[in-house]
């Protein structure tokens, strides 16, 4: 199923559009099914109702584990690199991973979990995180992984939204020179989570934790009490595989739902093709499993293809800015998949951290999560890829399950900062505000997809209407991505960034409304408005305009208090980079905040603010501009 030439890509693409069902059925033949499908696809985007491979029976872990055992049981499945370079790395072969997943699956069963139950996972980047994820899939439980940087309140919201029954966590996590007390955060969260019956705790940092009798148990004790034989649960193609929460323009994060068969086929196919993965190569995706990139391209995609996947617990700059490169050298990484934010941050250290490090194993480089600027693209190409490794700039989303628009390594001619062309099966279309298709090349528009693909979301958990409203109602019969996009003269796609109120900070999606709600919870704050602004390393930074009438303490202290509130409510990742105290916000007569103006102020571009005559009080703008000069 690997595409090896540009002509073949063009042929395959054509076929995938002309005969999508035949195309995807052909791809699906490469997977292991307990029973094959009766029907490849039924769909409409109006409800929406999307079903792939209906009637098929499978378990994704049979594909990620069991089917590799006979020929490749001793091949490394996961190579784990710890935060502390002085500590040993760990290699789990497919055989060992299979055994440990089965054993932990039995632990889950012993603790009352069964098919269909939701399980929250809040863990550090250790092999047991991948084991926990796969063990859920093994028994047909639905995992909801929450990134280790989210607060107790965020976790509680997610647990309650999905009525989770169990939590899998660890005592703590290491991140650079910091320690995060995961179990303590979980304890705080669970005060408000009546559906949780059991908490399984992995020992990792050996920090003291409190264990609640009857509720909490240790991972290490539990695995001793079960055997390692656990046949995979038979799942229907459209049974839920997992929920992953992500931010949108309004309200609380929503639980994006992915199902078993389509997600498996799509992540496996895109992994194998985009990265041109060859047997026995080492693949290193630097994301955290708490995000979709980690789900699809650390765990499921690579493992379904029998690949060796690296899990790195640490951060690129600890203990030094050589760390990433040392990991690549040490494990002879062939394919590196990372984020522009990491590239830009490492670029800032120059080439000195690269001295004496052998990167010759690298063969493919990947980028994901945000637009990559040309400077970072060239640095990646020259200093890391030594101009011999193709860069795949992969555009996709939590909702799309896998990569959508991207070069295929060694196949698609690349162009800096372009995600280039749609993968087979993907039918992008650009539309104007009224949903009218913008045809031809050399055009800009809102990016939509007009035909289903196997990896797409099926619903948002517990609220199908919200899924319809968010993705399928803006434009009739189209999936709306929320991204703006340019299609250049060659028909190449360049994603220009979000056109809604979502900001992309270091590749992490954050809703402005969420941050505003968090800031507004701080006593003393009357109202706030949050916008993104260009940030050299993070891509976008968070700029908050805050009305705080009685600023009698020193302003910096109040800023710190507000940051503390945001950290408590959402997590440190949502902390504003800048807070400006203002006496009013630019509102229209109907009470809507004119964010366009705030964005300009945040960018420091106040020369041309456009028409402000519709504002209720245009003077507010001058005041804001004046006080912004004091920041
Ligand atoms: C942005 C991450 C430009 C985009 C996989 C999208 C990108 C959002 C790229 C999804 C890229 C992702 N070039 N922008 N290669 N990849 N984005 O859900 O705005 O965390 O809508 O999924 O990231 O972020 P998410």
From TrEMBL:
The keyword Acetylation applies. GO terms for molecular function: acetate-CoA ligase activity; AMP binding; ATP binding. PROSITE patterns: AMP_BINDING. Residues 68-452 form the AMP-dependent synthetase/ligase domain. CDD domains: ACS. It is an enzyme of class 6 (ligase). Residues 514-592 form the AMP-binding enzyme C-terminal domain. Residues 9-64 form the Acetyl-coenzyme A synthetase N-terminal domain. Keywords: Acetylation, ATP-binding, Ligase, Nucleotide-binding. SUPFAM superfamilies: Acetyl-CoA synthetase-like (SSF56801). GO terms for biological process: acetyl-CoA biosynthetic process from acetate. Its EC number is 6.2.1.1. InterPro entries: Ac_CoA_lig, ACAS_N, AMP-bd_C, AMP-bd_C_sf, AMP-binding_CS, AMP-dep_synth/lig_dom, ANL_N_sf. The keyword Transferase does not apply. Belongs to the ATP-dependent AMP-binding enzyme family. This is Acetate--CoA ligase. It comes from Pedobacter polaris. The gene is acs.
